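Subgroup meeting minutes
Present: P.N., E.W., G.H.
Scribe: E.W.

1. P.N. recapped why we're keeping a running log of single-chain structure predictions: easier to compare across weeks, and new members can see raw inputs and outputs side by side.
2. G.H. added today's entry (604 aa).
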Amino acid sequence: MTDHLKLRPHKVMRDDRADGSILLKSGYPLGDVARCTGDWLHHWANLTPDAVFLAERSGAGWRHVTFAETLEATRAIASHLLARGLGVQTPILVLSGNGIDHGLLTLAAQYVGVPTVPVAEQYSLIPAAHARLAYVAQLVKPALVFTADAKAYSAALALDCLKGLEVIASDPAGSGATSFDGLLTPVEADVDIAHRRVGPETVAKILLTSGSTSDPKGVVTTQRMMCTNQAQLAAAYPFVQARTPRMVDWLPWNHVFGGSMSFNLMLSNGGSLYIDDGKPAKGLFDRTVENLGLVSSTISLNVPVGFAQLVTALRADDAFCRTYFSDLDMIFYAGASLPQQTWTALEDLAKKSDRGMPLITSGWGLTETAPGALLNHQPARAAGMIGVPVAGLDAKLVPEDGSRFEIRVRGDNVLASYLDNPAKTKAAFDEEGFFISGDAVSFVDPTDPSRGLRFEARISEDFKLMTGTWVRAAALRLDILGCLSPLAADVIITGHDREAVGVLIVPNMDAIVSDGHQVSVEDGVLSGASLEHDIAARLRAYSTAKTTGSAGRITCAMCLAEPPSMGEGEITAKGNINFARLLQRRSELVTRLYDPKDSARISI
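Output recorded in log:
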């Protein structure tokens, strides 16, 4: 299945404690951990100076930056940061998305101990989300602002929270911003001295949590956290060091998955990161397909919705399918559970290639864990497995109910504190110093911990019906998404303190139209006789085949006409739905959902 890969079987040490908790540790040692990201850069600039590190689209091809060029630019930019008096207390706020200039600035700041704060592009580009940007600026107190395009981000740059700050832009466009190109010529500064002072505890960046339950928290991310995590990834996946990795990747750098895992995976292993300027969104995914068709990746990272769209494109184009699988070692999904039909489709498509089956896998982690804490590094038969603890990490499973446990973690890749928030920091750790994740997991096989763990739910998403019956909303949501695919882009499970479970549907309009459904919009609800009949039939079939009790039976449904709004806090910076906020803002629709007389309600 994955004979061409060098894989390590799971090896787990288990300690059952008297209080019912279980400690899990990896049986593998943690390898050498770099002092800082600058050490990786120096290593590869010396060993493979002409190898491509970063690339971005330029016309019909790519603009490339080698490791040697990256080191030269990093040191030049760092000299300008030092000349401006920047240091650990004067972070740089990054407004725009992934790009070579963004990457070079990030490395330069880390090289001399200046934190960067990358934020979601939407905070700047969507006026309704400017309040989030203002909150972040007040929290981190930046001394400098970077954007790729001063004109495109002009509305955000004009906000009171950023007034008086120097703006550096790749394209100043007559805005008065400082040109990024001017930073590529070094000035007099003690770059070497500043770099030698950078160590494991130096703050590398401040990443914002999703803010799904409260205002975003600033995760103080140190060099130790990032460097430890790359050593942990290498211990789990030896093939990333066995041959030079290569990725075409869109995952946003304001998020830990893209900005820490993807970026540093290439930097630490001398790999090439081709920056994908597409994404799995309407009007943008064709660009991703084009980019993937130009460069064959050895590692493919994505979110489940991205892989679902990729499957459609691969099925439609045999040549593209051959290119995608021609050099592929690993398919890694994160951010949510991969639907089994997507997993099976990827396996079926891979079997047609000459390369052999890649490792299709996942893991578990958080912004606070830099991010990988659990990794599945042996072949699995199905989606949903998150693996075992990485080397050098202690995982504690605290019994919740039945076969479920809350997972807590402790190790050098785990944060020490949130930015200027001692109360949240104190509440985040238990009496033994384990970070309290709030996530529930279960054993794949309770008698064999080496089989790994399965993600169950965010504990905070579960709720009780009026009968006292628990509804496992996260797991149910995935089931219903599969049941309603592709008509539903997402679903929100309802029923807290009510008698029955319902569902609000975020429609996939492209799929609905292509299926021939005629729909109309009235009072915030999408309606149509054939669509409602289709949804009702699917949910009835699901209830008959899959469920036995009230906790898993959907009794009513309704299609939202207005998509979730980032400006209103219904969408997080990671692109996930903030369920609590959406249900609060649309409480009137929830009331209508449970009204048997409402004509827009779909009764199941």
